[in-house]
C-alpha cells in the first residue's frame, strides 16, 4: 500500500506541490469518528477538514488552499471537490480504482513513494495535459463551469 504522495495544485501563475500522507486509522477516526459514512460529511466542514489536512498534508495548508481558491474562484468547486475526494481515496486505499483521478484536473497526485523510498511519477502523468491551461480549456469545452 502506498502511504506517501506528492499532490499538485494548479494555479494560474504557479503549480503548488504538497506532501500527502496516509494516516493511521486511529488518528483518522480520532478526528472524524468511527463511522466511515459520517467522515465524508465531516470533511465538508472546515473545522474537520482543517484538522485532517494539518495531519495529512501540513499545518496551515487550508489557509494556503484558500489563497489558491481566491485566485481561481471561477473553478472553486472543482478544487474543493477534488481535494476531499483525493484525501478520502488515499486514506482508504481506493485512489488507484477511480479512473477519474487519472484525468487532468486542478488537483492531482503526481508522485508516490515506492517501497525503496524514492518518489516515482505516475505513468499517466504528462505535462502537456496536466497543466492549468489544458484543464481550463477542457472545462470550457464541455461547458461545465460551476463555482
Automatic annotation (TrEMBL):
It holds the Pfam family DUF1473. InterPro entries: DUF1473. Keywords: Plasmid. This is DUF1473 family protein. It comes from Borrelia miyamotoi.
Amino acid at each position: 500500500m502506498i502511504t506517501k504522495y506528492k499532490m499538485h495544485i494548479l494555479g494560474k501563475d504557479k503549480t503548488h506541490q504538497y506532501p500527502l500522507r496516509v494516516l493511521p486509522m486511529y488518528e483518522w477516526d480520532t478526528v472524524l469518528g468511527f463511522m466511515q459514512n459520517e467522515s465524508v460529511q465531516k470533511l465538508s466542514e472546515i473545522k474537520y477538514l482543517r484538522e485532517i489536512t494539518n495531519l495529512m498534508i501540513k499545518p496551515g495548508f487550508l489557509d494556503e488552499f484558500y489563497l489558491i481558491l481566491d485566485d481561481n474562484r471561477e473553478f472553486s468547486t472543482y478544487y474543493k471537490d477534488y481535494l476531499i475526494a483525493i484525501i478520502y481515496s488515499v486514506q482508504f486505499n481506493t485512489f488507484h480504482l477511480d479512473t477519474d483521478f487519472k484525468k487532468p484536473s486542478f488537483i492531482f497526485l503526481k508522485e508516490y513513494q515506492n517501497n525503496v523510498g524514492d518518489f516515482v511519477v505516475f505513468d499517466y502523468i504528462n505535462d502537456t495535459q496536466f497543466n492549468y491551461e489544458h484543464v481550463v480549456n477542457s472545462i470550457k469545452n464541455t461547458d461545465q463551469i460551476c463555482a
